[in-house]
Amino acid sequence: MGKLARRVAIVGAGMSKFGQWFPLKRNPDLWVDAWIDALNRVDNGIEPKEIDACYVGNYSSDLFNHQGHLGPQMANLVGLTPKPAPRFEGACASSGVAFRQAILAIASGVHDVITVCGCESMTEVSTTLVTDTLATASDNIFEYPAGATFPGLYAAIASAHFHKYGTTPEDLMRVGIKNHENGKENPFAQMQQSIKDIMASKIKKAESQGGSIPEWKDEIDFLKSSSNPMIASPLRLFDCSLVTDGAACLFLAAEDVAKKYTDTPIWITGTGQGSASLSLHDRNDITSFIATKEAAKQAYLMAGLQPKDIQIAEVHDCFTIAEILAMEDLGFYEKGKAAEAIKNGESKRDGILPINTSGGLKSKGHPVGATGAAMAVEIFKQMRGIAERNRQVKFDVEKALTHNLGGSGGTCVVTIYQK
Amino acid sequence: MGKLARRVAIVGAGMSKFGQWFPLKRNPDLWVDAWIDALNRVDNGIEPKEIDACYVGNYSSDLFNHQGHLGPQMANLVGLTPKPAPRFEGACASSGVAFRQAILAIASGVHDVITVCGCESMTEVSTTLVTDTLATASDNIFEYPAGATFPGLYAAIASAHFHKYGTTPEDLMRVGIKNHENGKENPFAQMQQSIKDIMASKIKKAESQGGSIPEWKDEIDFLKSSSNPMIASPLRLFDCSLVTDGAACLFLAAEDVAKKYTDTPIWITGTGQGSASLSLHDRNDITSFIATKEAAKQAYLMAGLQPKDIQIAEVHDCFTIAEILAMEDLGFYEKGKAAEAIKNGESKRDGILPINTSGGLKSKGHPVGATGAAMAVEIFKQMRGIAERNRQVKFDVEKALTHNLGGSGGTCVVTIYQK
Questions:
Q1: A31 φ, ψ to 5°?
Q2: Taking the CB of residue A113, how many other CB atoms lie within 10 A of it?
Q3: Is residue B122 scored above 80 in pLDDT?
Q4: What residue in A sits closest to B51 (Cα-Cα)?
């Protein structure tokens, strides 16, 4: 793996409000929302005529919306016809893949400015069909016919991690508690409530209905109660990310032209991508994702950085156990040590390595094809010091990382950002 | 649009036999067939460890096979795990898009050698569902709900071209006759029969059954008969390409390493991609594809060539009218003049500009996600002088072009090849 032939920067980034929008909004509407939000964050403005291509990341509008060939449609909506408009797919890492390919396309010398679209409109189909559609990102020869959808596959991963490292259900719960605390501070998040808020609203509801008032000692006690039903043991409802409609938009520019758009470009200094067999039974170890390790290795090498240099990160918490695996596979912590760090508050907003200040997939939401690009939106804001409400970290962010996973670790894209 | 930061070459190319293979073969099997065929054409051999990434073009394994996330699966089958394995989609131009992105990724400096996979397994679902699935590449807000699948959309395009330029049904038939003559000479083609062969077999069948013996004056007379039923006026059965399972494989290498694999790399000197609104009613003119014009403009500019410099081409004849539009939009002929050139035999194997020597989508077959890569396979063979049977052109091919279209012209990728 070599170096980028020229440097690439993010000069604008934005997103739609994440939520459940059907029938009001589908991919075209969500994308235009994200485009306008990003446009407003390009300091000196940008015109469609200055943009060379529209790179679209989307998992399966085919199955969710019976609409394929999304690239030209998205480009057309923002005045980019007849420019190149390819679509990229890597399951839940689809816009991570689009983002990476846009970086490579600019580095190649062929394009100077590319807009990256990540989008997914999931709520047009029933929840059962959402689970079924997402399961097409697993192996359909062995896993899917056996009924192993993603909650089950990640439950197997969690169980193996519990067995090998002594991780506990409470460790998983602390990931969700933290991410909901962050999502509360994100006006674009689907669930802007802390677990305490959710507990309070349940108590208020019980009071208003004259029922018995629940008495929980704390958030962990609440998350162990029947209010947090088991989905696939050991994963409960609040260990799972959300079903979401949403889009995100990035404007990328070559070093030659970046300064035209802003005095403070966010440079991409490392990009890596890895893959793994789709099926878990084909892997030597399911407590670690080789796709993450490979993508991270490439990205660190390209950036000339080490895990200890990273100051904040957005990682792929499709399930709470996935955040723990990411923290370890990215080299932030030794295998089996992330849970203790979480318990110590190290990954909180005021900790030594804030993770998922956006609220993560757990609280911000997870429109699968939009997630990778939305991670970059959060990093852009944190590095610019413009993250909304109370979630801006208190130090100057010079070096950051995003980790975008597809399926049960079949694809991973890691990106490193520097000022 | 700038130049490629470094040169890229094809050092090996191959394909599976195209045909209708379900239930014997699906994407994994077809891809391995194509990989082995391509491997055998890398002069000095190539090992998985030398390959940096696997770029997969596929339209909709989601809808055809209920399997998304195809990249990691394809990479795993040929020993490339845990390397990057993104999937690319541009409707019927999906592997054209994968091919283009692989070229840019190598030019970027990040990768030296990439294998491109194009694959589609279409016959697992019924023919009705094939048409329905392909229709997701049209606009699902206006066109699809109105029942306008691709034969109907291309029929509208043909009618408009007839009206504006006086093109006739016989002009379309001559495209099919030529492409079947070429496909007969391609051992990888789905239909290895000329129209004359098909006529002869129908006569033989009638004779053996003791029925009335059909008397056709010539191929045109046959194609005007009830043996060639109307599908969507003016398009008849033999104006439509085939429903096919198949895969193709390319090995691409940076100029720095290409000579390690062969003394005769085929250089990519131009690549372009264009887009258009998905829906026909959004366009000013449907007798010309702006995506083709844009892609061609970029590719010619990059290569420093003009249409007259091109010696052979593979163009996207999903319907016979599409080959005529391509010949005009690529600048080989003025608008409205291609039909006359076809009549004069200029696009035949022994003509002045042979087109679709492979048999084209009409006779070789059209596994949609594989088509773009398979076009490059034919050009590789013609430039090397190794095209099978009697279809090798009689002159030394120094400059060639491929034209890969998605949907009703929503996406187009044009590639220029030189020795």
A1: -65, -40
A2: 20
A3: yes
A4: A1
How many percent of chain B have pLDDT more than 70?
Answer: 100
Which domains, ranges and CATH numbers included, belong to chain A? 8-126+242-418 (3.40.47.10)
* Dihedrals phi, psi of A311, to nearest 5 degrees: -100, -35
In which band, very low, low, confident or very high, does the pLDDT at B2 lie, cut at 50, 70 and 90? confident
- Asked if A210 is an interface residue toward chain B (Cβ–Cβ < 8 A), one would say no
Q: B69 with A137: CB under 8 angstroms?
A: yes
Q: Provide the ipTM.
A: 0.98
Q: Residue B110's pLDDT is what?
A: 98
Least confident of A22-26, A258-262, B1-5, B28-32: B1-5
Amino acid making up residue A280: L
Q: CA of B122, closest CA in chain A: separation in Å? A: 15
Choice among A92, A117, A119, A412 that is catalytic: A92
Task: Using the predicted structure, report yes or no on whether residue A171 has a pLDDT greater than 90.
Answer: yes
A352 touches B at CB < 8 Å:
no
What is the value of pTM for the model shown? 0.98
Query: How confident is the model at residue B23, as a pLDDT?
Result: 93
Q: Is A289 exposed, middle or buried (0-12, 13-18, 19+ CB in 10 A)?
A: buried
- Spell out which residues of chain A touch residue B62, defining contact as CB-CB under 8 Å: 60, 62-63, 133, 136
Confidence (pLDDT) at A104 = 98
Of B84, B136, B291, the CB nearest to A275: B84
Residue of A nearest to B105 (CA): A104
Q: d(Cα A408, Cα A280) in Å, to the nearest integer?
A: 8
The model's confidence at residue B355, banded by pLDDT at 50, 70 and 90, is very high
Does B97 reach chain A within 8 Å, measured CB to CB? yes
Residue B389's region, left for phi above 0, alpha for psi from -120 to 50, else beta, is left
User: Which positions in chain B touch A86 (Cβ < 8 Å)?
Assistant: 88-90, 97, 100-101, 273, 411
Selected catalytic residue, list A111, A161, A316, A366: A366
Residue A417 pLDDT exceeds 90:
yes
Classified as helix, coil or strand, B29 is helix
The question of whether A92 is a catalytic residue gets the answer yes
Q: What is the pLDDT of residue A303?
A: 98
CA distance A238 to A236: 6
Is the CB of B82 less than 8 angstroms away from the CB of A282?
A: no
Percent of residues, chain B, with pLDDT higher than 90: 97
pLDDT at A1 over 80: no
Tell me how far CA of residue B186 lies from CA of A111, B182, B192, B346, B381, in angstroms: 38, 7, 7, 20, 11
SS3 B12: strand
Is there a contact between A241 and A361 (Cβ–Cβ < 8 Å)? yes
Q: Is the pLDDT of residue A211 over 90?
A: no
- Please state whether the peptide bond connecting residue B234 to the residue before it is cis, i.e. omega within 30 degrees of 0: yes
Report pLDDT digits (tens) over A223-265: 999 999 999 999 999 999 999 999 999 999 999 999 999 999 9
For residue B407, which residues of chain A lie inside 8 Å, CB to CB? 69, 72
Q: To 10 degrees, what angle do helices A320-329 and A290-303 make?
A: 50
Give one DSSP letter per residue of B348-381, joined into a string: STTSSS-B-TT-HHHHT---GGGHHHHHHHHHHH
Structure tokens given for A62: 């085919």
Among A72, A87, A110, whose Cβ lies nearest the Cβ of B2?
A110
Pair of tokens at residue A188: 């674009």
